[in-house]
């Protein structure tokens, strides 16, 4: 059996001479070999695993993370907001691995105990820098930040302010107030609401709302990139790099 697995590993190597995570699971299913054993055989013949389907390494495509998927993952997260590889893959049933890895990436959820044995547990650095970005008006009132971004994103996904509030675990008034504060300070409407039944009823975001979401995410990403760079320069000793 191990020889059959070894042959399949060599047949399915990617252009970098590595075995994609997805290919390893296909070998496991085809040969009825435990996935852990496939990982061990690959390691024994000097083949590295590539393109983790949960997005921990490699370059598989991602999309925008989903708050609904996040809610599905929450019960499996530990106190450090990490998830077992097995639980992450199980959560993908019915929604697909792309949605899972996208949500893990967007909400910075780490994966531990890779089923292929790529890492027992990702320990990370002894110190990490954390950043949180928000935008205020000159009166100190919060205009835009992570919370309001999530409100807009969930409304876009579900087409309803009340359903978005339910998913986010807040009452309707608080969700509505988030929108009103944002619209008041931006001096423009960000959502369109159609009353009644039918396919056209509900709440949608206008183009400006999507621009604000993307602008905030880009700002946060830029700040994190700079903060991480300066953190390494100031706090991480050269010998630890």
Can you tag this structure with a few keywords?
single chain, about 240 residues, mainly alpha, Arc Repressor Mutant, subunit A, two-stranded parallel sheet
How does this model look, in words?
The protein has 241 residues and is mainly α. Among the domains are: 2-50; 135-218, Arc Repressor Mutant, subunit A. 50% of the residues lie in helices and 10% in strands. The protein contains ten helices and eight strands. The protein has helices at residues 2-11, 21-31, 35-44, 67-73, 85-91, 97-106, 146-158, 161-168, 172-186, 207-235, and strands at 19-20, 49-50, 82-84, 110-112, 135-136, 142-144, 191-194, 202-205. The strands form four sheets. Strands 1-2 form a two-stranded parallel ribbon. A hairpin with a 7-residue loop joins strand 7 and strand 8 (202-205). Helix 7 (146-158) packs across helix 8 and helix 7 (146-158) packs across helix 9 (172-186). The chain is globular, with a radius of gyration of 22 Å. It starts with a helix and ends in a 6-residue tail after the last helix. The mean pLDDT is 88.
């Amino acid at each position: 059996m191990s020889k059959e697995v070894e042959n399949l590993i060599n047949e399915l190597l990617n252009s970098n001479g590595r075995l994609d995570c997805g290919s390893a699971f296909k070998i496991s299913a085809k040969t009825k070999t435990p996935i852990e054993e496939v990982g061990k055989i690959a390691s024994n013949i000097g083949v590295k695993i590539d393109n983790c389907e949960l997005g921990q390494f490699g370059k598989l495509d991602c999309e925008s993370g989903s708050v609904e998927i996040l809610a599905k993952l929450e019960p499996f997260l530990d106190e450090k907001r990490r998830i077992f590889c097995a639980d992450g893959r199980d959560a993908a049933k019915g929604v697909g691995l792309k949605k899972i890895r996208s949500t893990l990436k967007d909400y910075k959820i780490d994966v531990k105990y890779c089923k292929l044995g790529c890492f027992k547990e990702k320990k990370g650095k002894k110190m990490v820098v954390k950043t949180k970005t928000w935008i205020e008006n000159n009166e100190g009132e919060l205009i835009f930040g992570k919370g309001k971004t999530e409100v807009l994103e969930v409304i876009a996904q579900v087409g309803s302010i009340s359903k978005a509030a339910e998913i986010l675990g807040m009452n309707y008034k608080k969700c509505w107030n988030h929108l009103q504060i944002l619209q008041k300070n931006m001096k423009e409407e960000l959502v369109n609401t159609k009353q009644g039944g039918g396919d056209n009823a509900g709440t949608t975001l206008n183009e400006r709302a999507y621009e604000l979401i993307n602008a905030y995410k880009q700002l946060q990403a830029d700040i994190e990139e700079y903060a991480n760079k300066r953190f390494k320069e100031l706090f991480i000793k050269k010998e630890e790099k």
